[in-house]
Amino acid sequence: MRFVPSHYYRELYQRLQSLCQDTKxxxxxxxxxxxxxIRVNVEEDxxxxxARFMNGINSDITHIVELHHFVELEEIVHMVVKVER
Length: 85
What we know:
Layout: H1 6-18, H2 26-39, H3 46-56, H4 59-65, H5 73-84
Helix pairs in contact: 1-2, 4-5
């Protein structure tokens, strides 16, 4: 078993809370979000994950995508990628 400093998880949680797309592609942003969630073992309702994802997407894309109804995270990611292009 490896020693992991307690601040490591705190920093990952903080990074997850403030994560946003900025200059990253949607795919890069989504992969980073999922990776951090796996590392800190975040288990949340799919609607919460969808909201987390949308909260970090650039506003010009969010305004278009918010007009649609989605049930699954993969649907949102697919639509956001289409809008990004």
